[in-house]
Amino acid sequence: MSLPADSRFADGKEAGALRTIGEVARALNIAPHVLRYWEQQFPMLQPLKRSGGRRYYRSEDIALVETIDRLVNREGYTLKGAKKAISKGTAPDAEVEAGDGVLDRLRAIRHRLAAALEA
To answer: Whole-model pTM above 0.85?
Structure first.
């Protein structure tokens, strides 16, 4: 069973396929040197490295890069603050940003509060 192609990548690969640093950089509009720097700053970001140091990003690596980008470049976190939020699992959910209306944001907040109360 194959996964549908990821719409951010126009290369015809399946959604779970490994991506090079160049592919990830183009798809997410983040410079490759920034991705390499984030690898140093965020120990949890560890793409596979093959011979010659070539990096291959898995889908979970790409999701983490998207979270870092959102926290740092859109929500105003410092790198230290973003690292702390991600490592503690307290990074704000992307679903808050995805909702266009107030109702969507309120539902996301309610969901996070319910999860916090269960913990």
So the answer is: no
